[in-house]
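call fold(seq) -> tokens
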Amino acid sequence: MQALTDVLNWISTQLGHEIPGDTSSAFYALFHVVLLWAPLALFLVLLLGGVRAVLRFARRFLKKANALTQSGLPTSVFQLIFRHTRRDQLYLVILGLISLPVLYMTLELPKRIINRAIDGPEHTTIIFGIKLSQTEHLFFLCGLYLFAIIISGLMKFSLNVYKGKVGERLLRRLRLEIYYRWRSGSGTEQRSEVIPIVTQEVEPIGGFAAEAFALPVFQGGTFLTILTFMFLQDPYLGAAAITLLPLQLALIPRLQRKVNVLARSRMIEVRNLSGQLGYQSGSSELPSGPSKAVGTSLKEMERIRLSIHRAKFFAKSLNNFLSALTPFFFYAIGGYLVINGKLTLGALVAVIAAYKDFSAPLSELFRYYQTREDVRIRYEGIDEFLGISSRPNTAQTKAAAG
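ret:
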């Protein structure tokens, strides 16, 4: 235990603080979690996730860029998106990167307003060769903050509008491609199954196309920008912000894998239901068999959807709980530093305000992961359907041979 305490004191010294000897055992335990165990857990989770990502990349993406599946579609949804929207994706990524410095301004200015214009001593400030009184300095910083907010809002608006345009273009192209490939194969045998595919199953793929590359860059950049701001205010607060991140990174993907299995089952059941309805619509008589099959299919869909709802809402509730728990570390550690005169109140207020925006990009990244897995399953299902549709019709082949 003494060795761990020595390591903790060394880390604290490297971060520019020294833990007093009269610190209570409760605070020592808190510092152990924030400065020692949480960073170690985060390193292990990221290392394991990185190894898995490399192996997954080796399996799926170390193929020719123009490789096609049996149905004629690209081997992955990312290759499909990159092939048709690479210029648009580049524009979205650049726009997202440009917005990050503006975001940092919206975080830094409130701290300067509190520490220099409001809480600071009365003095004359010279900005661009112009002397400003304390009140004029306050209004100058407030005006600059307002300008940064407006610019940030306009850039986000432009980014979202362009993302919608990119998604709709790819969605139209994909629907046409599915339709043409279905028509060129034995599509008449699967007339009812193609309807939910063209109308519903491809819809999330279009939405994901607009976010495939831009969202990780923008939201990941936002996350890192806010985290950098927190570390610059005080390394303790930056470490406190990521204390529960290893837990989120370890649990959310496990829950998502369960949702993936249920989503695939739901997709198969929807197609089974479409097949039953197509059979009944093409038959002059309605025997009891198909009606029972439809009822069974509907009951199974209800069971699967309820399971998906439980898994998704549990993951969301867990993520929200962990995000709401993080400010506890800010109040405890930040308050401790303010009381001991090692941190200004303005910096603590700025960090707490920044955390409000800190949890949003993290939630968006988790949502992106869930959407990516859902889209991957849908894309594989569409590819499987088109692969079956593209096979020669057995009856037509025999008739042509005879």
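The two ends are 86 Å apart (CA to CA).
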